[in-house]
Amino acid sequence: MPLIGKLKFKARREKLFGNGRPRPLDRNAKVRITHLARCLSRRTEKGKAYGALTAKALSVLEVLLWVFHNARSGLCFPSYERIAEAACCARSTVAEAIKALEDAGILSWVNRIKRVAETTPDLFGHSTRKTRVIRTSNGYAFIDPKAGQTPVSLENSSKSDFPPGTPNQEFLQLKPAAASRVLNPDNHLEGALIRLGRALGAAV
What we know:
Blueprint: H1 3-6, E1 15-17, H2 27-41, H3 55-68, H4 80-87, H5 91-103, E2 107-121, E3 127-142, H6 188-203
Helix pairs in contact: 2-3, 3-4, 3-5, 4-5
């Protein structure tokens, strides 16, 4: 049998600059995702303590969803170390859990990359600036199991997920414009303004 027939080609993981592909989720969507994961963790075979997902995979999902995921922006890109600390498990366990969650259709992720400028000496000892691309933490997106569900818009989101106010900007309360007032021709200053307006109108 040719060697090429024994090889399994894996699709290359998408690499994106910036924040990845954030997906906002309201509270109901997060509950649906968590419920699906818990159903998948129930044992399906006799003598096996769990199903498609282990208890640690559930812990990893819960900290990703409820600790690191920003419901409004959809951003979620913690490092393996931070996930492991929050889920009280090893870094290797986080990697296994994320693979299991992806295989189960719970989440997807992309490689986040960024450009870094470095100063290095050239052959003559002069400093030169070079830019190289490095990989940062993964960007995670969660898949709502509700049939036909598109990413939840902010208009339909749960109010409990989005506390009032934002730490990044302030919203200004604009006062309604005051009603226009009719000028009094008997007033010295207002009469002058009326005559000026008429003169300008005649000149146009």
